[in-house]
Design brief:
Barnase, Chain D, 3-stranded parallel beta sheet, single chain, 89 residues, 18% strand, alpha/beta
């Protein structure tokens, strides 16, 4: 299983988080930086399972506000549907 570590201390904006996720899941270059595009891309993903570990998620929540909530909601929904695993640290 691949790991994608999102480090809230290092990723200062939503675009950086979407980039990190895009790299981990090898999303196409036209992947958009928004929750709907993330959900669509996760649904199309057929590669190796990915475990997402979001370190210092509280810091990301502080920095991103509603954008954090939107990204997290998509990741939680995807985890509930066994598309990935998600750990908040």
């Amino acid at each position: 299983m691949k790991q994608c570590v999102l480090d809230g201390a290092l990723l200062g904006d939503a675009a950086a988080i979407y980039r990190q996720l895009g790299q981990a899941f090898q999303f196409p270059s036209y992947f958009g930086n928004n929750p709907d595009a993330l959900w669509d891309a996760l649904g199309d993903y057929s590669g190796e399972p990915v475990a997402i570990i979001w370190r210092d998620a509280a810091r990301s929540a502080e920095l991103l506000g509603p954008q954090f909530d939107a990204i997290l909601a998509v990741l939680q929904k995807a985890a509930a549907e066994a598309m990935l695993t998600l750990e908040l640290a």
